Amino acid sequence: MKIKFKQFLWLILVLSVQIVAAQDGLISGIVTDKKGIPIPGVNIIVKGTKVSTQTDFDGNFKIAAKKGESLVISYVSFATVEVSASNNMKIELIETQNELEAVLVVGYGTQSKKNLTDNIARVTAKDIQQIPVANVQNALVGKLAGVQITQTNGKVEGGMNIRVRGAASISAGTQPLYVMDGIPLINDDESSNGAPTNPLLTLSPNEIESIEVLKDASSAAIYGARGANGVVLITTKKGKEGKGTFSLNFSQGVSEATHKRKWLNAKQYVELLQEAGRNADDLEYVEDELEYLSGGTDWRNGEIDTDWQDIAFRTGYTTDADFSSSGGDDRTKYFFSGAYNNTTGIIDSNDLDRITARVNVSHKVSERFTAGMNIGFSRSVIHRVQDDNSFSTPLQSVAQAPISQARLADGTPNPDTEYVNYLLAKDNTSWETIMRRVTGKIFGEVKIAKGLKFNSDFGYDFLTQSEDYWQGKNAPYMATDGEVFATSVNTENYVFTNYFTYDATFAEKHVLNVVAGMEFNKYNRRYQDVNSIYFPNDDFHTVDGGAEVNEGHGSETDYVFLSQFGRLNYSFNGKYLFKASVRRDASSRFGKDERYAIFPAFSAGWIMSEEEFLKDNTILTYLKLKASWGQVGNAEIGNFASRQLYQPNPYNLKSGLTFQQAGNDRLTWEKSKQTDVGVEVGFINKINLEFDYYQKITDGLLFATPVPLSSGASSINKNVGDLKSSGIEITLNTKNIETENFKWSTSFNLTTNESKVTSLPNNNTDVITDYNINRVGENVSSFYLVEYGGVDPLNGDALFIKNTVNPDGSIDRSTTSNYDEAKRIIAGNPFPTLMSGMTNTLNYKNFDLNFTFQGEWGASIYNSAGSYQSSAADWFDNQTADQLNRWQKVGDITDVPQARFYQQNGTQNSTRYLDKADFVRLRNLTFGYSLPKETVNDAGMSSLRIYFTAVNLVTFTNYKGYDPEARRDDAGIGEDFYSAPPAKTIAIGVNINF
């Protein structure tokens, strides 16, 4: 075919234009960190379009863009930048992790770390991911200065105790306010079996982007009436502009108790009981009981030697699987996730099965209007055991005699044990708790004018919990051929928030941020229970199988908060910072004369390193002074503490009412005034130190104060009493080594706290409970016990220190064997006075290692079970192994008195059973390996990481009990009563990203 010359010229022209156009429309470059190290997987998008790409393994990229177009470059843990497209680009990203440009979530907005004048502790998804724990709070332990996080005990659903900067109350709630994506979360313990459940167990770590803890009043006062115990802001993950991503994570772990105690075997048990019987002239009775407990077996020669502890504990297992997908363009962003957790607890018959799902979507409807929604769902099924003080709980079986069989020859539980055999409960009862949670939020944002926008959010939290307690005809204490107790609780909380935000910069020196708005919050709870008895057989496990519904209850309650709030942030010349906030709250919980309260806060900062005399200093690279003051409240007093109440009191099938509670129209918030002064210092851009001193004074503590009986009531709720908490916080972040192949960074925090009672009702009269006291000048809920004085080496008597006052005013420190002659003293503090955490992160080529040590000092634990299990055979309970060191002959030096059956030789409540709870723990450790990019890219993946992780791997402590963090779950403060230790878990997993 012939080509004409004109056609040839036209073809050449077209090709030339295409080549030029192609060259002009393809931009290339490289993305590195500030050390020049290439960063793979960086998202690059042409602003205002859907055109995007990612950098390759060497940090290189190519994107279809024209010169001058804006490129948005983003990557996790690095600051997002916007640059103009050009040829052969070299783009440098600055890491934001532990850097001043990191953006923190504050109430109703965000703020950079550099301009922050508050005290806020923060962890990100990177800090909590792939830690094999069932609840989010446990993943935070040791990572936040000023925040103590303790799981009540080793049960999978165990309640969490979180104290932010010490105590802010004695009788009202002490837990922080949790706010997720602007929704105040329901955190009510709805358990009906004596042991608490943790409602936040319904959250999965894989859906969380960051957690900020507002610790000082300047940051928490924006939440006013509910900020006294701190505020925990949970932000869920959102989609980002750029290429869509898909992530899979799977891990499998095995668990065991962090520690087991040593108990007497059958031979030792018999020897000790016989000796105790002889010393008490009651050997015949003791041996008769041993004959009964042995069930006719040869107890004298140890035919049966049951390890009840080994039966109560078991090997636990954890399975975690989750996925997430996210992405978006300049108009629509999305995030989807789902997670599954199955935990077989270390305590027999205790399990958790949970599923969660989340959808977060936002859409830019126009240049002025953006709308979106966040929806989360979870379902948690928990198979539970009874509380620590129930004889049918597994761990209390350690009190059983080792000469008793656990099961008879036919496999059925032995019914003839000292206490009820918990295996009867295991085989013939079940306690199932199901928690279902839906959180939802719809939101809209309108840009009204330059710098001015309006946000409207409607959030909803719905938590429903049902419990079914089935007892068969052979269950312990059963007298009605079976019984079923069923409860149902529906709790909902909705919040409607509307606020304006104004941002402006004047003369390039004055930066202003103003937030003002209002919020309406309504809470409703509806409770029902029913009990059914007389079942035809054990195949029926629901209420309708019983012949008689013999009992039922129901109640409904609600409360309302109506609030207005405002905040102003001002920065001059990038170095002088000022913030003021105020919130006005009204609550239906308080007396009609005191329903409104105002909570103001102020803070200021000076970035000295921006001054000319420090600006170019290469050693002292950052220096900021800051101070704050504010007032916050505590509204966790219950819904009707201020009301005069009457209760139904039927008699002889006739209805009636009786007086229940005296009302107080002046009852109001407990209010805390907090002061914080601090300094932030940076050296050579590698060392960052934060030091803060805080003081928190709470007045108007809520107490039930006595009234004359002629009033018809015994007490009335009043705001009387004060306490003060103070301490220091130190956070040190260092980048120890940074080379091309090896990086090592450390984060260290240390906190001191002292919480003292400064005023009490009734002319500062001591408030005493079983083992604790609140006394002016002493620590909150101090231990109040008779002081143990050891053992008389002449006769084996237990001794107690008198601690009585001599005529000259001195204290009589002599000892006595008469317990009634000794006086109680302040003997210890149930809360730590020093806490610390240290996290190290190391990366070598494709290997990564992260581990956290946690420590607490200054707290004590009272083992109220000690008078049974460490009593030198005062009872038939099995004894701890240290009771073998009892006094036996004249001259013996020991702390264990002579064994005397049923003689109370040293078994009274005293400091004998009080122990220091100091410990250092390797809280978590993760070691991972990421396959080379070339390998995984060929398989269509962007990354593949295999990891090993562990929780509670090693504990260093002198505490004699099960674990220095385990506490009684049914009552008490700082008390151990057959309380299970936490689990030590080791898991392996894989994380895949596409």
What features would you describe in this structure?
- Residues 1-22 form the signal peptide.
- Residues 113-231 form the TonB-dependent receptor plug domain.
- One of its GO terms (cellular component) is cell outer membrane.
- The longest helix is centred in the N-terminal third of the chain and has 20 residues, at 5-24.
- The protein is mainly β and 994 residues long.
- Helix 4 (266-279) packs antiparallel against helix 5.
- The chain folds into two domains: 16-92, Carboxypeptidase-like, regulatory domain (Immunoglobulin-like), CATH 2.60.40.1120; 137-258 and 313-649 and 669-781 and 830-864 and 912-993, Beta Barrel (Maltoporin, Chain A), CATH 2.40.170.
- The chain contains ten helices and 54 strands.
- The two termini are 50 Å apart.
- The chain has a 22-stranded antiparallel beta barrel. Strands 39, 40, 41, 42, 45 and 46 form a six-stranded antiparallel sheet that branches.
**Helix run count:** 10
CATH architectural arrangement of the largest domain: Beta Barrel
Helical proportion?
under 10%
Strand content: over 45%
CATH class of the largest domain: Mainly Beta
Uncertain segments of ≥5 residues (pLDDT<50)?
8-24
- What is the chains' assembly state? single chain
In terms of structural class, how would the helical and strand content be classed?
mainly beta
The CATH topology of the largest domain, please?
Maltoporin, Chain A
